[in-house]
Design brief:
This protein has two domains: 14-122, no CATH class; 129-279, no CATH class. It is globular. Helix 4 (79-94) runs antiparallel to helix 5 (100-122) and helix 9 (190-224) packs across helix 11 (237-254). The protein has helices at 14-23, 30-42, 56-70, 79-94, 100-122, 129-139, 147-158, 162-170, 190-224, 231-235, 237-254, 260-267; strands at 47-48, 51-52. By secondary structure, the protein is mostly helical. Helix content is 62%, strand content 1%. A two-stranded antiparallel sheet has the order 1-2. The longest helix is centred in the C-terminal third of the chain and has 35 residues, at 190-224. A hairpin with a 2-residue loop joins strand 1 (47-48) and strand 2 (51-52).
């Protein structure tokens, strides 16, 4: 099945925006910018000429819900995501899609969201398994682009017992929490692991649902233009579902460690357990 024909993932104008930023003499990191542009478009933010035009409500959702669920904490800090959003706002102004008053208002909203965003990105209760292991891999100096090195590290980590794993998780310096409890290994017990598994599943479902919405819009456009539905869609419905799930996992890896979400789920489920429905509190 042709993922491109179904417009599964947004083709953002990251490179164009990076070029514009460079011309302005401002540095914006590529991965956070690409992540922000993709999430905004997947979430239904209005897009003009390939660039999203977020409202304060869109930014609130992005910073307090979506990024803490899907994206890695950047090596140089979470300010990189805020810088990406600021660049999008200023580009809108340069393109005459915002007046000066609206631009200033969005920057005020962004500044007000900053502290809450930084906290959300570092709270243990907001982590997913890919985000947690991305932090551990970086701490131990593993090259995330080298899947053999990632596998070797996971194999070694698998040899640790439950207490040793909990101690490693609790020792992560990136994590902060109002409860001041994450530094105690005993805080990483069954309930915390259950929360991690639930958050991981929720992140995958969130992206899968957003991707499905894009596909439905693409299919509707095909029908409206008289092109009809792709023949393979009717022959391989299960393949269609796999395509969406694989793309959701790919994006989560692109925003943490490439290939890690799929690797954890397929080959290391014991290191990243997800709950059975019966385990989830009701």
């Amino acid at each position: 099945m042709d993922a491109l024909a179904l417009a599964l993932t947004p083709h953002t104008r990251t490179d164009d925006l990076l070029e514009w930023c460079a011309a302005q003499g401002r540095e914006v990191a590529e991965r956070p910018l690409r992540t922000v542009l993709t999430l905004l478009e997947l979430s239904g933010t209005p897009v003009h000429d390939g660039f999203p035009e977020p409202t304060a409500a869109d930014l609130d959702q992005l910073l307090h819900e979506q990024l803490p669920m899907t994206a890695d904490t950047e090596p140089d800090g979470d300010q990189a995501y805020l810088d990406a959003v600021a660049a999008i706002i200023d580009h809108q102004r340069a393109a005459k899609r915002l007046n000066a008053k609206r631009q200033a208002r969005l920057h005020e909203e962004l500044a007000g969201f900053g502290d809450g965003f930084r906290l959300a990105m570092r709270m243990p209760g907001r982590l997913t398994w890919p985000r947690l292991y991305a932090m551990l891999l970086r701490r131990d100096g593993v090259d995330g682009s080298d899947q053999a090195a990632v596998r070797a590290w996971l194999d070694a980590f698998r040899q640790r017992d439950a207490d040793q794993r909990a101690a490693a998780w609790a020792d992560l310096p990136q994590l902060i929490t109002p409860e001041e409890e994450h530094g105690r290994p005993e805080a990483w017990g069954h309930t915390r692991l259950l929360t991690l598994g639930m958050a991981t599943e929720n992140a995958r479902l969130f992206l899968g649902n957003r991707l499905l919405e894009r596909v439905y819009r693409s299919l509707t456009a095909m029908v409206a233009e008289g092109r009809g539905l792709p023949p393979e869609l009717g022959r391989d419905v299960e393949g269609y579902g796999r395509l969406v799930a694989e793309e959701a996992a790919r994006l989560l890896g692109e925003w943490t460690v490439p290939g890690l979400p799929a690797l954890l789920r397929a080959d290391y489920p014991d290191l990243a357990p997800e709950p059975d429905p019966a385990e989830i509190p009701r």
